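We include the pair:
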Amino acid sequence: MYNYDKVLPIGTVVLLKGATKRLMILGYQRALVKEPDRIYDYCGCVYPDGYLNPEQVAAFDHEQIERIYALGLQNDEEKVFQDKLHTIISERE
């Protein structure tokens, strides 16, 4: 079974604590140009607008998520990816 304690699938729509707009997860383990040594758990775009340009991509951590509105695609390919991602994250911790 899937374990979303630390990693949500791409396409998941979330609301961050204190936010008014939802975000859709686009990727993982994101560093910002102005903070190259800081790795965030996720990057996302405003939902339902989608990805418009790189300046509008948010970087955030799992702990900042207040609510999950919808989980992204969950299939065998995503499960294999999740397992690899968990290994990468474990090595960083």
In short: The chain has one domain: 13-92.
